[in-house]
Amino acid sequence: MVVMLNGYVETLMMTLSQYFFVVLTAPLYSGILAKLKAMIESRRGPSIFQPYRDIWKFLRKETLIPRGSGFIFRYGPYVIFGIYSLIALIVPILVPVPIFFTASADFLGGAILFSLAAFIKIASSLESGSNFMSLGAVRTASFIFLSEGTLITVFFAVSLITKTNNPYVTNNFLSANPFQSLTLEHIFATLAFFMLFFYETGKLPLESPGLAELGMIEEGMNYEYSGRLLAINKWSGHMKQYILGSILLNVFLFPWFLQSSFPYFLLDIPIMFLKWMLLIVIVAVIETTLAKMRLFRILDYLATAFTFSILFLAFGVLLG
Amino acid sequence: MNAIENIVFLSAALATVSGFYIQAQEYIRSMVRGQFIQSILIAATIFVLAYAESSIDLVVLGLLVLVLRGYLITELLERRIPGKGSDLREKEIGIASHLLLDLVFIMIGTFIIYSLVFSGINFSIAGNISGGTILVFPLALFFQGLFLIGSRNTTFSQITGYIEEENSLVLFAIFLIPVPLIIEASVFLDVLALVVISSIVVLEKFTHNPLEELRG
Fold first, then answer.
1. Residues A72-82 pLDDT 10s
2. Distance between CA atoms of residues A1 and A7, nearest Å
3. Residues of chain A with pLDDT under 70
4. Mutate to test the interface with A, among B8, B11, B17, B135 (most CBs of A within 10 A)
5. Cβ contact, residue pair B100, A312, below 8 Å
6. Which pLDDT score is estimated for B147?
7. Looking at this predicted complex, what is its ipTM?
8. Please, where are the H alpha helices in chain B?
């Protein structure tokens, strides 16, 4: 009984650690990335804590709701935040062993949750009645059929390699068998997911990070949001970036070094920080060296990612 | 799968991926340079095989591919690009749709041909029998070349598609034939034919539309 209770407490602590780690540190990585980009561009740049200040500022401001908008517009940001919170407990972001809620979904379930969040965001944007938000929603809908397809096929590819669709088992399998990371399916699935990570987090040099209407996609869907709802949306965006980046690191690119035993799992916090620093450097270099391209090129980019993911998924089946 | 096999599979796969790169190019010069990269990748595959098999014939073949396909054809094609060269491009190409159609085409083509004809063939690298699965890559490359010819109008694109098919045949043959003397001969003849044909055809017309040469 005491052993069971100890196990329960340990799992609870791991669950809480993972959840609060994601929620509380996700904006920090966005801040570090913005700072590093500024340094590469010979600018002073904002503080690495600027995303926290923005969220705090928005939380204190008045929330304005456009006339005619419905309940999806009002409550959508909370639901999306909840969905990303659930995904944060499904995938191995900090602790490489199953925790509470891990059994809620597998890889495919995670992908469907990402799609659900995107759907709710589009629905809430269309409900606002704003042309700018509709523009962002339409653009997202135009591109999402390829990005979600890539996400699902990439997860299929990983499932084929590791013979499981449980992300924790995948992480353990790849950690224990480093040569599996050199298989064709894994290399090209990693490449496809890396391209997807760039698109999903708005890092493409095709997309404007601000409110310039010619290039806005994600920001367009935040256009009419203000106050607390905008803060929640921004926070969800940071969480989404962190979750996708951590999947990229722990399942595809660099699954090693995570500690699973209690209380050594706390060492995973600095380990994940170092892994993220590596990813941030790669992202910053790519983001600042690529020339800006036209918006509709996103389809070409996503088609390439989709091609990589499905080609080597199919070859994986053919190659046995 | 050992390290050598992994490298051979990877380089053959990259040669197939380079086919997608060529397919996605609008600019003629980029397309020709894509063909250069593809030839380099095939030469690299041959050199790795030469190392694994300790075969001097394969080294010679690798050098021939490198010099003739990699350098000579690229140089000759680039010189034939009219005008400023780097500015010349094929307009109104839907890259995303072309890539997806190419993917569907090569998947269906490769699956049918491989399943019906090549699934029982065994191939060995440095004494390790690894089945005929590696033949999937040259097959995919062949269908990519075919799709490039079918999907583009410019003579340069069609010649590049033809070179891609030739590259796939070289890749195909080095996995099947122990001593590739016949390939060396074919490389010489292909290069000769390509240079002559491309010199005449490119000068004559820049674009070729379907069946226009067959109209009375």
1. 999 999 999 99
2. 10
3. 1-4, 205-214, 318-320
4. B17
5. no
6. 93
7. 0.81
8. 3-23, 28-53, 56-64, 74-80, 95-113, 136-151, 155-176, 181-204
